[in-house]
Amino acid sequence: MALEFRLPDIGEGVVEGEIVRWLVKEGDTLREDQPMVEVMTDKATVEIPTPRAGKVAKLMVEAGKLCAVGQVMIVIDTDGSGSKPAPAHQPAPAQPATTQAPAAAAQVAASAPVQTVSAAEAAGRKVLATPATRQLARNLGIDIRTLVGSGPGGRITRDDVRRASSDKSVPPVAAPKAAPVAQAVEAPVAAKPVALPQVVPVSVPVHAEDERVPFRGLRKKIADNLVRSKLQTADFTYVEECDVTELVALRKRAQKRAAERGIKLSFLPFLIKAVVSGLKKYPTLNAMLDTERDEIVLRKSYHIGVAAATDAGLMVPVLRNADRMSLFQIAAALEPLAERARTGKASREELSGSTFTISSLGKLGGLLATPVINFPEVAVMGVHKIKETPVVRDGQIVIREIMNLSISLDHRIVDGYEGALFLQHVISMLEDPTLMFMELV
């Protein structure tokens, strides 16, 4: 028997993914749950395991090519007969899970009982599971957060889900609550990508000494997002300098207290606190434009994206609900988040959903840059190098710690005057950082 495995639904709004690389080749023998392929969606790469033991009959999509959700990725000969694959009649995204769920559930029902946690413990609990396993849990009505995984590192396997399906004591998944209107824009933006204008392909002459690198993967995704941003925003940039002498002194004093708690305190938490304060005062900068409904969506959550350079390219890990966190809580959350982004271990959820982005090159921040808006957001703030600068204060030339801040704005949504007021508010918080501690957490 031959099984046609289709690209499953690996996230809300995802309609296609790029095959980054195959971890198997035609003729390989597969064991169930063996890592099979790496697929990139947005800026996150997920590893999809094989759904059944067998032999690779045919790889249907080449590495570097796009694969739509529901499209056949690979054909697996599950009995070694080499028979032609039978067409799958099940709904495409759920096909790998539903074709085997009833029979497999009967086989494992008599095995070890499933381990679960209480509903109270499950609330907000993060679990390890592959996209295919999560899809199976949704199909069978199982709240995956209530399960205790039997796989390596506590990972929840499909067998765990099937055992839960046959165990009537396992609570069913709760019906999803209606999403707030302010967040409804996210799915259409991701699910309905805008086609870029067609351009005439350019062929570059080949020389023997040149090296040619495939333009795909994360680098291609970054390029597509940048072009989309430029095509769909009327962007402009406003720049102002900021005297952070008091901030430098405050951070120096606070570093010792942070170190006692095992926290590395950079300038970024202070910048995030100042930005959140500004977004609350000028909510238009924490907005998105829903062109399908002709509505400006003012976000009531403050999810701050922080652009981070990685070996693979620029990524934007997201610090969620930054307005609810203290300075030290932000610092403690940022370091592991940035590390997961740098090492390619950040989840799709950690790399999406930001409402405002901060872009900084740290010590290489330079004098000025015009950061590109992280579409569909309407603003991004660039942070530049802090350096000692002679300035005039009260008629005297003194040395102060000065840096420039730049903000790029979508002029369709944010007026220049309002954008300038926002940046001036951020600067006032950074120049007198004690004001941050008067803000509500």
Pick out its properties.
441 residues, alpha+beta, four-stranded antiparallel β-sheet, globular
Given helix and strand content, the structural type is alpha+beta
**Low-confidence parts, pLDDT < 50 over ≥5 residues?**
82-111, 174-194
- The whole-number mean of residue pLDDT values reads 80
Largest sheet, strands/sense/barrel: 8 strands, mixed
Order of secondary-structure elements: EEEEEEEEHHHHHHHEHHEEEEEHEEEEH
In total, the number of strands is 18
SS element count, helices? 11
- What is the global morphology? globular
What percent of residues are in strands? 15-25%
Distance between the termini: 59 Å
Radius of gyration: 25 Å
Give the helix proportion (percent range).
Answer: 25-40%
Question: Could you give a short description of this structure?
Answer:
By secondary structure, the chain is of the alpha+beta class.
Write a structural description.
The strands form 4 sheets. Strands 9, 12, 13, 14, 15, 16, 17 and 18 form an 8-stranded mixed beta sheet that branches. A 4-stranded antiparallel beta sheet has the order 1-8-6-3, with no helix packed on it. Strands 5-4-2-7 form a 4-stranded antiparallel beta sheet, with no helix packed on it. 27% of the residues lie in helices and 23% in strands. The protein is an alpha+beta fold. The chain is built from 11 helices and 18 strands. Mean pLDDT is 80; it is low at 82-111 and 174-194. The longest helix has 16 residues, at 217-232. The protein starts with a strand and ends in a 10-residue tail after the last helix.
